Amino acid sequence: MTEPAITHNSSARRMAKTVLNGFNSYFADYLNATLAAKARFEKADWQAVQQANVMRLELYKEKVHQTVNFLAIVTNRDIRNLDLWRQAKSAYSQLVSNFPNFEIAETFFNSVFADVHDHDKIDDDIIYVLSSQLLVQPSSEYSITIRYQGNDCRDLFRRLLQESEFSLPFEDLEDDLDGIVENFIAQHGEYHRSSAQPLSIDLLESVFYRGKAAYMVGRVSVDGVGHPMILAILNNERGSCYVDTALFSQDDMSVVFSFARNHFMVDAPLPYQYAHFLKQLMPNKRDYEIYNALGFPKHAKTEFYRELVQHLRSSDDQFIIAPGIKGMVMTVFTLPSYNIVFKIIKDKFAPPKEVTHEIVRDRYRLVSRHDRIGRMADTQEFDNLVFPLDR
Fold first, then answer.
1. CB neighbour burial string for 268-290, b if at least 16 within 10 angstroms, e if fewer
2. Structure confidence by residue, pLDDT tens digits, 184-210
3. Closest CA to 335 of 298, 382, 281, 387
4. pTM for the whole thing?
5. Helices (H), strands (E): how many in the chain?
6. Contact 181, 231 (CB under 8 A)
7. Is residue 217 within 8 Å of residue 265, measured between CB atoms?
8. Residues involved in catalysis
9. Do residues 101 and 272 lie in contact, with contact meaning Cβ atoms separated by under 8 Å?
10. Coil/strand/helix, residue 310
């Protein structure tokens, strides 16, 4: 005997559909802003690069606000009613079941709810503290990589560069190849042509753009063992481009994807597939770090919160004041078992500091919108974040 279908209040279903429409609108605009990164790089329009980074960050907030306004129109019910949100979440879970990018769509639902309730009433019964479904390893049906295979590594890298998406020609291809092969051999030793297995490169089909650089990212397999590969491309601003450096180690790749650097612009219609690929090459990176690097800081915040909740459940040490010089604006604390610091703005600031809470927050937001180039760590801002008192 089959289970009866779950029925939902019609207002709740309209709310769920409205939130999903808001997400789809956001994601389409997000992808369009990202697709234009290639043209900005090739034109060396660095001012437009900076503007696009800020616009993409603001886009999420704008779409959330817009969705909240629509919610007030599609129902005559009180959109602050928590029982209505419980039903809306249930309806939304049905809508995003097996939905591409469901994990980011769930985060968007959370953001809309938080905008209505001022980041209060956080409960898995109402929002997605935990996801409604498990992310599974991507199937091979949708390939995000281009494979190059052969016994001559110089020839492989030549083909890879010649078939790249850039409209600009390479300034001196042979010189670039000299540098790439030299770095490759320095990292992995001379590749022997008599090897039983040919050398293979799985190149992510979309280029990663950030600042004034473009990064071709992939995996190079030597004797069946996969290693990171990044080719950093620069525009010489004279009508051509060149390979600035070639990286083939996990440590180097981790630096490029560091939380102390800006988010990438990369055309990834299914971000989880890119995240899964990168996680294989950087197993020590956490999910939230990779989503952040891919340009999804709000979903990175969701992933971080889930990890924090799990860590609190599986540990019992006490929070302590973080080691170091005491700050004048922030109180900084941490868990000895967790390599994350939490900063809370002080209620009062000692002289000579003459700032307000809003000024402090604005300065952190300013940092997030400019190129940190490795000098400042990225931050996630929380309102009404609850910690267990017994810790």
1. beebbbbbbbbbebbeebbbbbb
2. 999 887 654 445 568 899 999 999 999
3. 387
4. 0.88
5. 12, 9
6. no
7. no
8. 378
9. yes
10. helix
